[in-house]
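The data are quoted verbatim for completeness:
=====
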Amino acid sequence: MLVGVGQVRGNRERDPAAAREPAALVLDAVAAAAADSGAGDSGVGSLLGALDSIATVHVMSWAYDDLAGRIAAHVGATPRHTHGSTVGGQWPAVLLEQAAARIAAGESRVALVAGGEAQASIGVLRKAGIDPVDAGWSAEPGGPPAFDPSLRDLPSGQAGLLFPTRVYPLFHSAHRHAVGLSPAAAAARSAQLYAAFTQVAALNPAAWNPEVRTAAEVGEPGPGNRMVCEPYPLAMNAMPHVDQAAAVLVTSLAAARELGVPDDRIVHVVGGAGAKDSRDVLARPSLARSDALADARDRCLAGVDPAELDAIDVYSCFPIVPELVAHHLGLPVAAVAGVTGGHNAFGGPLSSYTLHALVAVTQKLRAGAGLALVHGNGGFLTSQHALLLSRSPRDYRGDPEPRDTAGAAPPLVPVPDIADVTIEAATVEHGRDGAATQGFMVARTAEGGRFAAATPPGDAAAARALSLHRGGTAREIVGSVARVVRKDEHVLVEGT
Protein backbone atom coordinates (compact mmCIF):
# COMPACT_ATOMS: atom_id res chain seq x y z
CA MET A 1 0.00 0.00 0.00
CA LEU A 2 1.09 3.57 -0.68
CA VAL A 3 1.65 5.45 2.55
CA GLY A 4 3.64 8.53 1.49
CA VAL A 5 4.03 10.56 -1.71
CA GLY A 6 6.09 13.64 -2.43
CA GLN A 7 7.09 15.83 -5.34
CA VAL A 8 9.12 19.00 -5.86
CA ARG A 9 9.62 21.58 -8.57
CA GLY A 10 12.85 23.55 -8.73
CA ASN A 11 14.31 26.54 -10.56
CA ARG A 12 11.35 27.40 -12.74
CA GLU A 13 12.90 30.86 -12.94
CA ARG A 14 15.93 29.29 -14.68
CA ASP A 15 18.43 31.05 -12.43
CA PRO A 16 21.99 29.66 -12.75
CA ALA A 17 22.54 30.31 -9.04
CA ALA A 18 19.51 28.15 -8.17
CA ALA A 19 20.48 25.20 -10.37
CA ARG A 20 20.47 21.95 -8.37
CA GLU A 21 21.31 18.50 -9.63
CA PRO A 22 18.63 15.81 -9.93
CA ALA A 23 19.85 13.85 -6.90
CA ALA A 24 19.27 16.86 -4.66
CA LEU A 25 15.71 17.24 -5.98
CA VAL A 26 15.09 13.52 -5.52
CA LEU A 27 16.24 13.67 -1.89
CA ASP A 28 13.84 16.55 -1.29
CA ALA A 29 11.02 14.49 -2.81
CA VAL A 30 11.92 11.53 -0.58
CA ALA A 31 11.75 13.77 2.47
CA ALA A 32 8.40 15.12 1.30
CA ALA A 33 7.04 11.59 0.83
CA ALA A 34 8.13 10.60 4.33
CA ALA A 35 6.52 13.69 5.82
CA ASP A 36 3.37 13.02 3.80
CA SER A 37 3.01 9.61 5.50
CA GLY A 38 1.87 11.36 8.65
CA ALA A 39 4.10 9.16 10.78
CA GLY A 40 5.28 12.12 12.86
CA ASP A 41 8.82 13.41 13.36
CA SER A 42 10.17 10.28 15.04
CA GLY A 43 8.15 8.03 12.75
CA VAL A 44 9.53 9.67 9.61
CA GLY A 45 13.07 8.81 10.61
CA SER A 46 12.04 5.28 11.45
CA LEU A 47 10.14 4.94 8.17
CA LEU A 48 13.10 5.95 6.01
CA GLY A 49 15.54 4.00 8.16
CA ALA A 50 13.41 0.89 7.71
CA LEU A 51 13.68 0.95 3.90
CA ASP A 52 14.63 -2.52 2.72
CA SER A 53 14.08 -1.74 -0.99
CA ILE A 54 14.99 1.38 -2.99
CA ALA A 55 14.37 1.63 -6.74
CA THR A 56 15.14 4.66 -8.88
CA VAL A 57 13.91 5.70 -12.30
CA HIS A 58 16.62 6.43 -14.85
CA VAL A 59 17.86 10.04 -14.81
CA MET A 60 18.64 11.50 -18.23
CA SER A 61 19.88 14.96 -17.28
CA TRP A 62 22.85 13.82 -15.17
CA ALA A 63 24.67 10.51 -14.83
CA TYR A 64 24.60 8.47 -11.61
CA ASP A 65 26.09 5.04 -11.08
CA ASP A 66 24.11 4.30 -7.90
CA LEU A 67 21.39 6.81 -7.11
CA ALA A 68 19.58 4.27 -4.92
CA GLY A 69 22.73 3.84 -2.84
CA ARG A 70 23.06 7.59 -2.47
CA ILE A 71 19.49 7.80 -1.18
CA ALA A 72 20.12 4.95 1.27
CA ALA A 73 23.21 6.62 2.67
CA HIS A 74 21.39 9.94 3.02
CA VAL A 75 18.44 8.49 4.99
CA GLY A 76 20.45 5.97 6.98
CA ALA A 77 18.88 2.86 5.46
CA THR A 78 20.51 -0.49 4.64
CA PRO A 79 18.24 -1.92 1.93
CA ARG A 80 18.56 -5.52 0.82
CA HIS A 81 17.31 -4.61 -2.64
CA THR A 82 18.37 -1.65 -4.79
CA HIS A 83 17.71 -1.10 -8.45
CA GLY A 84 18.07 1.58 -11.12
CA SER A 85 15.90 1.34 -14.21
CA THR A 86 16.74 1.95 -17.84
CA VAL A 87 15.02 4.67 -19.89
CA GLY A 88 11.24 4.38 -20.27
CA GLY A 89 8.10 6.08 -19.06
CA GLN A 90 6.61 2.75 -17.96
CA TRP A 91 9.22 2.28 -15.24
CA PRO A 92 7.58 4.14 -12.31
CA ALA A 93 4.53 1.88 -12.62
CA VAL A 94 6.70 -1.23 -13.10
CA LEU A 95 8.94 -0.44 -10.13
CA LEU A 96 6.00 0.29 -7.85
CA GLU A 97 4.32 -2.96 -8.79
CA GLN A 98 7.55 -4.91 -8.31
CA ALA A 99 7.83 -3.38 -4.85
CA ALA A 100 4.20 -4.24 -4.07
CA ALA A 101 4.70 -7.81 -5.31
CA ARG A 102 7.72 -8.30 -3.04
CA ILE A 103 5.72 -6.97 -0.11
CA ALA A 104 2.76 -9.23 -0.92
CA ALA A 105 5.17 -12.20 -1.04
CA GLY A 106 6.66 -11.31 2.35
CA GLU A 107 10.05 -10.46 0.84
CA SER A 108 9.91 -6.75 1.77
CA ARG A 109 8.17 -4.47 4.26
CA VAL A 110 9.12 -0.88 3.37
CA ALA A 111 10.06 0.23 -0.16
CA LEU A 112 10.78 3.48 -2.00
CA VAL A 113 10.52 4.40 -5.67
CA ALA A 114 11.99 7.77 -6.69
CA GLY A 115 13.24 9.73 -9.66
CA GLY A 116 13.71 13.19 -11.09
CA GLU A 117 15.26 15.42 -13.72
CA ALA A 118 16.97 18.82 -13.85
CA GLN A 119 17.04 19.42 -17.59
CA ALA A 120 16.02 23.07 -17.18
CA SER A 121 18.99 23.77 -14.94
CA ILE A 122 21.33 21.89 -17.28
CA GLY A 123 20.19 24.19 -20.05
CA VAL A 124 20.57 27.39 -18.07
CA LEU A 125 24.05 26.44 -16.85
CA ARG A 126 25.12 25.54 -20.39
CA LYS A 127 23.80 28.86 -21.66
CA ALA A 128 25.72 30.70 -18.94
CA GLY A 129 28.89 28.79 -19.77
CA ILE A 130 29.04 27.16 -16.33
CA ASP A 131 30.21 23.57 -15.87
CA PRO A 132 27.67 21.91 -13.51
CA VAL A 133 30.55 20.29 -11.62
CA ASP A 134 31.93 23.77 -10.91
CA ALA A 135 28.45 24.60 -9.58
CA GLY A 136 28.72 21.74 -7.08
CA TRP A 137 27.08 18.91 -9.01
CA SER A 138 28.34 15.36 -8.60
CA ALA A 139 31.60 14.70 -10.44
CA GLU A 140 31.51 10.90 -10.31
CA PRO A 141 30.44 9.79 -12.74
CA GLY A 142 28.84 13.13 -13.62
CA GLY A 143 27.90 14.54 -16.98
CA PRO A 144 24.89 13.99 -19.21
CA PRO A 145 24.35 10.32 -20.13
CA ALA A 146 25.29 9.29 -23.65
CA PHE A 147 22.57 8.87 -26.28
CA ASP A 148 21.87 5.25 -27.16
CA PRO A 149 22.05 4.98 -30.97
CA SER A 150 20.62 1.46 -31.15
CA LEU A 151 17.41 2.62 -32.87
CA ARG A 152 19.50 3.57 -35.90
CA ASP A 153 20.00 -0.12 -36.62
CA LEU A 154 16.27 -0.81 -36.96
CA PRO A 155 14.49 -0.50 -40.32
CA SER A 156 12.40 2.36 -38.91
CA GLY A 157 15.52 4.13 -37.68
CA GLN A 158 17.16 3.81 -41.06
CA ALA A 159 14.15 5.66 -42.47
CA GLY A 160 14.68 8.53 -40.03
CA LEU A 161 12.06 7.46 -37.47
CA LEU A 162 14.44 8.02 -34.58
CA PHE A 163 12.64 10.62 -32.50
CA PRO A 164 9.31 10.56 -30.65
CA THR A 165 8.32 13.84 -32.30
CA ARG A 166 8.31 12.04 -35.66
CA VAL A 167 6.89 8.66 -34.66
CA TYR A 168 3.91 9.54 -32.45
CA PRO A 169 2.33 11.74 -35.15
CA LEU A 170 2.50 8.71 -37.47
CA PHE A 171 0.46 6.72 -34.95
CA HIS A 172 -1.96 9.65 -34.72
CA SER A 173 -2.46 9.76 -38.49
CA ALA A 174 -3.11 6.02 -38.77
CA HIS A 175 -5.53 5.95 -35.82
CA ARG A 176 -7.37 9.04 -37.00
CA HIS A 177 -7.99 7.41 -40.37
CA ALA A 178 -8.94 4.05 -38.86
CA VAL A 179 -11.68 5.52 -36.63
CA GLY A 180 -13.02 7.82 -39.35
CA LEU A 181 -12.02 11.19 -37.92
CA SER A 182 -11.16 13.96 -40.33
CA PRO A 183 -7.80 15.68 -39.76
CA ALA A 184 -9.62 18.79 -38.55
CA ALA A 185 -11.81 16.85 -36.11
CA ALA A 186 -8.85 14.85 -34.79
CA ALA A 187 -6.78 18.00 -34.28
CA ALA A 188 -9.67 19.69 -32.47
CA ARG A 189 -10.07 16.67 -30.18
CA SER A 190 -6.38 16.76 -29.27
CA ALA A 191 -6.47 20.50 -28.64
CA GLN A 192 -9.47 20.18 -26.34
CA LEU A 193 -7.75 17.43 -24.36
CA TYR A 194 -4.53 19.39 -23.95
CA ALA A 195 -6.47 22.51 -22.96
CA ALA A 196 -8.11 20.38 -20.27
CA PHE A 197 -4.65 19.31 -19.12
CA THR A 198 -3.76 22.97 -18.55
CA GLN A 199 -6.76 23.35 -16.24
CA VAL A 200 -5.58 20.37 -14.20
CA ALA A 201 -1.97 21.58 -14.11
CA ALA A 202 -3.05 24.98 -12.85
CA LEU A 203 -4.13 23.28 -9.61
CA ASN A 204 -0.94 21.24 -9.20
CA PRO A 205 1.71 23.04 -7.11
CA ALA A 206 4.52 21.12 -8.82
CA ALA A 207 3.40 22.00 -12.38
CA TRP A 208 5.97 23.59 -14.65
CA ASN A 209 3.44 25.51 -16.79
CA PRO A 210 0.47 26.25 -14.52
CA GLU A 211 -1.27 28.65 -16.92
CA VAL A 212 -4.73 27.79 -18.24
CA ARG A 213 -4.90 27.82 -22.05
CA THR A 214 -7.81 27.48 -24.46
CA ALA A 215 -8.09 24.83 -27.14
CA ALA A 216 -7.34 27.49 -29.74
CA GLU A 217 -4.20 28.57 -27.90
CA VAL A 218 -3.04 24.98 -27.65
CA GLY A 219 -4.00 23.82 -31.12
CA GLU A 220 -3.24 26.73 -33.44
CA PRO A 221 0.37 27.07 -34.60
CA GLY A 222 1.89 30.51 -34.26
CA PRO A 223 4.48 32.53 -32.37
CA GLY A 224 5.42 30.59 -29.25
CA ASN A 225 3.53 27.53 -30.47
CA ARG A 226 5.31 26.47 -33.65
CA MET A 227 4.34 23.35 -35.53
CA VAL A 228 6.78 20.54 -34.70
CA CYS A 229 5.48 17.52 -36.63
CA GLU A 230 1.98 17.60 -38.09
CA PRO A 231 -0.54 17.68 -36.52
CA TYR A 232 1.18 18.50 -33.21
CA PRO A 233 2.29 22.05 -32.42
CA LEU A 234 4.68 22.63 -29.54
CA ALA A 235 1.90 22.74 -26.92
CA MET A 236 1.00 19.13 -27.77
CA ASN A 237 4.57 17.88 -27.29
CA ALA A 238 6.07 16.79 -23.99
CA MET A 239 8.08 19.49 -22.21
CA PRO A 240 11.25 17.76 -20.93
CA HIS A 241 13.15 20.93 -19.99
CA VAL A 242 12.00 20.90 -16.37
CA ASP A 243 13.39 20.46 -12.86
CA GLN A 244 11.01 18.05 -11.12
CA ALA A 245 11.31 15.02 -8.85
CA ALA A 246 8.93 12.67 -7.09
CA ALA A 247 8.98 9.76 -4.65
CA VAL A 248 6.49 7.21 -3.33
CA LEU A 249 6.68 4.99 -0.26
CA VAL A 250 4.97 1.60 -0.19
CA THR A 251 4.74 -0.71 2.82
CA SER A 252 2.96 -3.72 4.19
CA LEU A 253 -0.05 -3.00 6.39
CA ALA A 254 1.80 -4.35 9.42
CA ALA A 255 4.78 -2.06 8.79
CA ALA A 256 2.49 0.94 8.34
CA ARG A 257 0.87 0.18 11.67
CA GLU A 258 4.22 -0.26 13.43
CA LEU A 259 5.55 3.00 11.98
CA GLY A 260 2.52 5.00 13.02
CA VAL A 261 1.05 5.77 9.60
CA PRO A 262 -2.55 6.97 10.06
CA ASP A 263 -5.29 5.12 8.20
CA ASP A 264 -6.24 8.23 6.23
CA ARG A 265 -2.84 8.19 4.48
CA ILE A 266 -3.13 4.61 3.19
CA VAL A 267 -3.94 3.88 -0.47
CA HIS A 268 -4.05 0.26 -1.58
CA VAL A 269 -2.13 -1.03 -4.59
CA VAL A 270 -4.55 -3.50 -6.12
CA GLY A 271 -2.05 -4.48 -8.80
CA GLY A 272 -1.57 -4.10 -12.49
CA ALA A 273 -0.11 -5.53 -15.66
CA GLY A 274 2.52 -4.79 -18.26
CA ALA A 275 3.06 -5.60 -21.92
CA LYS A 276 5.66 -4.89 -24.56
CA ASP A 277 5.58 -4.69 -28.33
CA SER A 278 8.26 -4.84 -31.00
CA ARG A 279 10.92 -2.14 -30.66
CA ASP A 280 10.62 -1.47 -34.38
CA VAL A 281 7.30 0.18 -35.17
CA LEU A 282 7.45 -1.25 -38.69
CA ALA A 283 7.28 -4.75 -37.19
CA ARG A 284 3.83 -4.14 -35.68
CA PRO A 285 0.59 -5.37 -37.22
CA SER A 286 -0.96 -1.90 -37.29
CA LEU A 287 0.08 1.66 -36.56
CA ALA A 288 -3.52 2.56 -35.74
CA ARG A 289 -3.55 0.76 -32.41
CA SER A 290 -1.27 -0.54 -29.63
CA ASP A 291 -1.70 -4.20 -28.83
CA ALA A 292 0.59 -3.82 -25.81
CA LEU A 293 -1.52 -0.98 -24.44
CA ALA A 294 -4.75 -2.93 -24.91
CA ASP A 295 -3.32 -6.05 -23.29
CA ALA A 296 -1.96 -4.20 -20.24
CA ARG A 297 -5.24 -2.31 -19.72
CA ASP A 298 -7.40 -5.42 -20.05
CA ARG A 299 -5.34 -7.49 -17.61
CA CYS A 300 -5.03 -4.66 -15.11
CA LEU A 301 -8.78 -3.99 -15.13
CA ALA A 302 -9.91 -7.62 -15.23
CA GLY A 303 -13.35 -7.66 -13.61
CA VAL A 304 -13.50 -3.85 -13.31
CA ASP A 305 -15.83 -1.77 -15.47
CA PRO A 306 -13.99 1.38 -16.67
CA ALA A 307 -17.07 3.33 -15.61
CA GLU A 308 -16.17 2.44 -12.00
CA LEU A 309 -12.92 4.42 -12.19
CA ASP A 310 -13.03 7.69 -10.29
CA ALA A 311 -9.65 8.85 -11.56
CA ILE A 312 -7.62 7.99 -14.66
CA ASP A 313 -4.15 9.36 -15.26
CA VAL A 314 -2.58 8.41 -18.56
CA TYR A 315 0.89 9.02 -19.95
CA SER A 316 0.53 11.96 -22.33
CA CYS A 317 3.82 12.65 -24.10
CA PHE A 318 1.67 13.18 -27.22
CA PRO A 319 -2.13 13.22 -27.62
CA ILE A 320 -2.34 9.85 -29.35
CA VAL A 321 -1.44 7.97 -26.14
CA PRO A 322 -4.38 9.13 -23.97
CA GLU A 323 -6.61 9.04 -27.04
CA LEU A 324 -5.78 5.37 -27.61
CA VAL A 325 -6.48 4.62 -23.93
CA ALA A 326 -9.84 6.37 -24.07
CA HIS A 327 -10.73 4.56 -27.29
CA HIS A 328 -9.82 1.17 -25.84
CA LEU A 329 -11.72 1.79 -22.61
CA GLY A 330 -14.78 3.04 -24.50
CA LEU A 331 -14.67 6.38 -22.69
CA PRO A 332 -14.83 9.94 -24.02
CA VAL A 333 -11.41 11.54 -24.42
CA ALA A 334 -12.33 14.08 -21.73
CA ALA A 335 -12.34 11.22 -19.21
CA VAL A 336 -8.56 10.83 -19.48
CA ALA A 337 -7.64 14.46 -18.75
CA GLY A 338 -6.32 13.05 -15.48
CA VAL A 339 -5.29 14.62 -12.20
CA THR A 340 -1.63 15.49 -12.86
CA GLY A 341 -1.70 17.92 -15.78
CA GLY A 342 -0.06 16.22 -18.73
CA HIS A 343 3.45 16.24 -20.13
CA ASN A 344 3.29 19.74 -21.56
CA ALA A 345 1.39 21.69 -18.93
CA PHE A 346 2.56 19.83 -15.83
CA GLY A 347 5.92 19.01 -17.37
CA GLY A 348 7.50 15.94 -18.86
CA PRO A 349 10.45 14.85 -16.68
CA LEU A 350 11.17 12.01 -19.10
CA SER A 351 11.01 8.58 -17.45
CA SER A 352 9.81 10.01 -14.10
CA TYR A 353 6.46 11.51 -15.13
CA THR A 354 4.31 8.63 -13.87
CA LEU A 355 5.80 9.06 -10.39
CA HIS A 356 4.10 12.46 -10.34
CA ALA A 357 0.89 10.81 -11.55
CA LEU A 358 1.09 8.44 -8.58
CA VAL A 359 1.43 11.44 -6.27
CA ALA A 360 -1.61 13.17 -7.76
CA VAL A 361 -3.76 10.02 -7.85
CA THR A 362 -2.90 9.15 -4.25
CA GLN A 363 -4.00 12.62 -3.17
CA LYS A 364 -7.21 12.22 -5.19
CA LEU A 365 -8.02 8.90 -3.56
CA ARG A 366 -7.36 10.28 -0.09
CA ALA A 367 -9.77 13.11 -0.88
CA GLY A 368 -12.64 10.69 -1.52
CA ALA A 369 -12.20 8.94 -4.86
CA GLY A 370 -12.60 5.17 -4.70
CA LEU A 371 -10.72 3.59 -7.58
CA ALA A 372 -8.02 4.89 -9.93
CA LEU A 373 -6.06 3.77 -12.97
CA VAL A 374 -2.51 4.98 -13.62
CA HIS A 375 -0.79 4.25 -16.93
CA GLY A 376 2.84 4.49 -18.02
CA ASN A 377 4.20 4.29 -21.56
CA GLY A 378 7.75 3.79 -22.78
CA GLY A 379 9.53 3.88 -26.11
CA PHE A 380 7.38 4.36 -29.20
CA LEU A 381 4.21 2.87 -27.66
CA THR A 382 6.56 -0.04 -26.97
CA SER A 383 6.32 -0.77 -23.24
CA GLN A 384 3.10 -0.35 -21.30
CA HIS A 385 2.23 -0.76 -17.64
CA ALA A 386 -1.00 -0.01 -15.81
CA LEU A 387 -1.75 0.10 -12.10
CA LEU A 388 -5.05 -0.08 -10.24
CA LEU A 389 -5.21 1.79 -6.92
CA SER A 390 -8.00 1.78 -4.37
CA ARG A 391 -8.92 3.79 -1.28
CA SER A 392 -10.54 0.75 0.31
CA PRO A 393 -8.74 -2.55 0.97
CA ARG A 394 -8.59 -5.05 -1.90
CA ASP A 395 -6.51 -8.18 -2.35
CA TYR A 396 -3.31 -7.66 -4.34
CA ARG A 397 -3.55 -9.35 -7.75
CA GLY A 398 -0.74 -7.79 -9.74
CA ASP A 399 1.52 -9.17 -12.45
CA PRO A 400 4.81 -7.24 -12.52
CA GLU A 401 6.34 -9.15 -15.45
CA PRO A 402 5.46 -7.69 -18.88
CA ARG A 403 3.90 -9.92 -21.49
CA ASP A 404 5.20 -9.90 -25.06
CA THR A 405 2.38 -8.92 -27.40
CA ALA A 406 4.40 -8.58 -30.62
CA GLY A 407 2.27 -9.92 -33.47
CA ALA A 408 2.68 -10.72 -37.12
CA ALA A 409 3.30 -7.64 -39.26
CA PRO A 410 3.18 -7.01 -42.99
CA PRO A 411 6.41 -8.02 -44.73
CA LEU A 412 9.03 -5.30 -44.99
CA VAL A 413 10.13 -4.48 -48.50
CA PRO A 414 12.75 -2.10 -49.92
CA VAL A 415 11.68 1.36 -50.95
CA PRO A 416 10.57 0.93 -54.57
CA ASP A 417 12.29 2.85 -57.33
CA ILE A 418 8.91 3.93 -58.62
CA ALA A 419 5.49 2.59 -57.64
CA ASP A 420 1.92 3.46 -56.77
CA VAL A 421 1.47 2.82 -53.03
CA THR A 422 -1.16 3.31 -50.33
CA ILE A 423 -0.15 5.67 -47.55
CA GLU A 424 -0.55 4.00 -44.14
CA ALA A 425 0.73 6.87 -41.98
CA ALA A 426 2.37 10.23 -42.62
CA THR A 427 3.67 13.37 -40.94
CA VAL A 428 5.65 16.47 -41.90
CA GLU A 429 8.37 17.99 -39.74
CA HIS A 430 8.64 21.79 -39.55
CA GLY A 431 11.58 24.02 -38.72
CA ARG A 432 11.67 26.70 -36.06
CA ASP A 433 10.59 29.23 -38.68
CA GLY A 434 7.42 27.22 -39.32
CA ALA A 435 8.41 26.01 -42.77
CA ALA A 436 8.06 22.36 -43.77
CA THR A 437 11.45 20.65 -43.79
CA GLN A 438 10.91 16.91 -44.25
CA GLY A 439 8.08 14.44 -44.69
CA PHE A 440 7.91 10.91 -43.27
CA MET A 441 5.64 8.13 -44.38
CA VAL A 442 4.83 4.46 -43.94
CA ALA A 443 3.26 2.94 -47.02
CA ARG A 444 2.03 -0.35 -48.47
CA THR A 445 2.75 -1.66 -51.93
CA ALA A 446 0.10 -3.23 -54.13
CA GLU A 447 1.39 -6.62 -53.03
CA GLY A 448 0.95 -5.76 -49.33
CA GLY A 449 4.57 -5.08 -48.44
CA ARG A 450 5.36 -2.25 -46.00
CA PHE A 451 8.15 0.29 -46.12
CA ALA A 452 9.02 3.60 -44.49
CA ALA A 453 10.65 6.52 -46.27
CA ALA A 454 11.39 10.21 -45.90
CA THR A 455 11.52 13.05 -48.37
CA PRO A 456 14.90 14.73 -48.92
CA PRO A 457 15.82 16.82 -45.85
CA GLY A 458 15.37 20.54 -46.38
CA ASP A 459 13.27 20.09 -49.53
CA ALA A 460 10.15 22.03 -48.53
CA ALA A 461 8.29 21.29 -51.74
CA ALA A 462 8.85 17.55 -51.37
CA ALA A 463 7.75 17.66 -47.73
CA ARG A 464 4.56 19.56 -48.55
CA ALA A 465 3.42 16.66 -50.71
CA LEU A 466 2.69 14.83 -47.44
CA SER A 467 1.30 17.83 -45.55
CA LEU A 468 -2.19 17.95 -44.13
CA HIS A 469 -2.45 21.61 -45.08
CA ARG A 470 -1.47 21.69 -48.72
CA GLY A 471 -3.74 24.07 -50.61
CA GLY A 472 -4.87 25.94 -47.49
CA THR A 473 -7.43 23.44 -46.19
CA ALA A 474 -6.96 20.35 -44.04
CA ARG A 475 -6.98 17.17 -46.11
CA GLU A 476 -6.58 13.47 -45.42
CA ILE A 477 -3.78 11.68 -47.24
CA VAL A 478 -3.70 8.51 -45.14
CA GLY A 479 -5.44 5.78 -47.11
CA SER A 480 -4.84 7.52 -50.42
CA VAL A 481 -2.81 6.15 -53.31
CA ALA A 482 0.28 8.09 -54.33
CA ARG A 483 3.25 7.52 -56.58
CA VAL A 484 6.65 7.37 -54.93
CA VAL A 485 9.87 7.89 -56.81
CA ARG A 486 13.11 6.90 -55.13
CA LYS A 487 15.75 9.61 -54.98
CA ASP A 488 18.98 8.25 -53.49
CA GLU A 489 18.03 7.30 -49.88
CA HIS A 490 14.81 9.33 -49.93
CA VAL A 491 11.58 9.56 -51.93
CA LEU A 492 9.52 12.08 -53.81
CA VAL A 493 5.76 11.69 -53.50
CA GLU A 494 3.48 12.55 -56.39
CA GLY A 495 -0.26 12.69 -56.79
CA THR A 496 -1.29 13.45 -53.20
